[in-house]
């Protein structure tokens, strides 16, 4: 926020000062254009600046035609405005409507359609957008905070897996609000990654976005598993074995871990499930069904990481 304020003030001051130095008429308009052009991200500022420069040519041409046909009257300005707004909406140049129309009002008030005065107006737009782009060349990277967020997400995921393990052992309840906190952290991290993508013109953020998508899908599975565990009330051998598997998954949870061998442990446990005697009571049957569903969800949880790892294997350094 503080940096954005400095950029707005700096771009405005530089644009006005340079316009005065060059002896341009209506020099303050260059500052207004600069102020409007300093947006939140570097890419958006470049895009809007290009739109405004292109739109300036169209606006001045339409203004000259309107005032030449109808004279320097309100009707002429409204004719220009109708045509230019239609153009801006047709080509999605809406941010250019206000600053370009300010320039056209200069033609109206000065009653001057000469080439030198039109050049004056074009220079005002170039100075305003140019100063905004100049001050946007510095944009600090957020990569360190993104890396820290990934580490924090993994730590919280480990905690949740251990809580599920404890619940399977009937030691304590899962704290559901921590999952909500984790979901909020992932959502906030995505916003940071999108800002990084817009601010750093040549950086690659696909890895970060896909990583966060993968973790978000895993959190959704944790939500499902915690709901299922609320209906599991019997302490069984299978529950203890599954609890150990959750602990192992938590212990091996890492950004760089392929996690493929965990599927082998799950397959071994499935084999034990099939070899166990059939449940004797309805409650045992329901518990066995819940545990089997948990094992299936844990398989999906691990498979998400395996798919992600295989997609980016050997490419990790490119996206760090």
TrEMBL record:
<protein>
    <submittedName>
        <fullName>Aromatic acid exporter family protein</fullName>
    </submittedName>
</protein>
<dbReference type="InterPro" id="IPR010343">
    <property type="entry name" value="ArAE_1"/>
</dbReference>
<keyword id="KW-0812">Transmembrane</keyword>
<dbReference type="GO" id="GO:0005886">
    <property type="term" value="C:plasma membrane"/>
</dbReference>
<feature type="transmembrane region" description="Helical">
    <location>
        <begin position="54"/>
        <end position="81"/>
    </location>
</feature>
<keyword id="KW-0472">Membrane</keyword>
<feature type="domain" description="Putative aromatic acid exporter C-terminal">
    <location>
        <begin position="146"/>
        <end position="305"/>
    </location>
</feature>
<keyword id="KW-1003">Cell membrane</keyword>
<feature type="transmembrane region" description="Helical">
    <location>
        <begin position="122"/>
        <end position="139"/>
    </location>
</feature>
<dbReference type="InterPro" id="IPR052984">
    <property type="entry name" value="UPF0421"/>
</dbReference>
<dbReference type="Pfam" id="PF06081">
    <property type="entry name" value="ArAE_1"/>
</dbReference>
<dbReference type="InterPro" id="IPR021062">
    <property type="entry name" value="ArAE_1_C"/>
</dbReference>
<dbReference type="Pfam" id="PF11728">
    <property type="entry name" value="ArAE_1_C"/>
</dbReference>
<keyword id="KW-1133">Transmembrane helix</keyword>
<keyword id="KW-0175">Coiled coil</keyword>
<dbReference type="InterPro" id="IPR038323">
    <property type="entry name" value="ArAE_1_C_sf"/>
</dbReference>
<feature type="coiled-coil region">
    <location>
        <begin position="165"/>
        <end position="192"/>
    </location>
</feature>
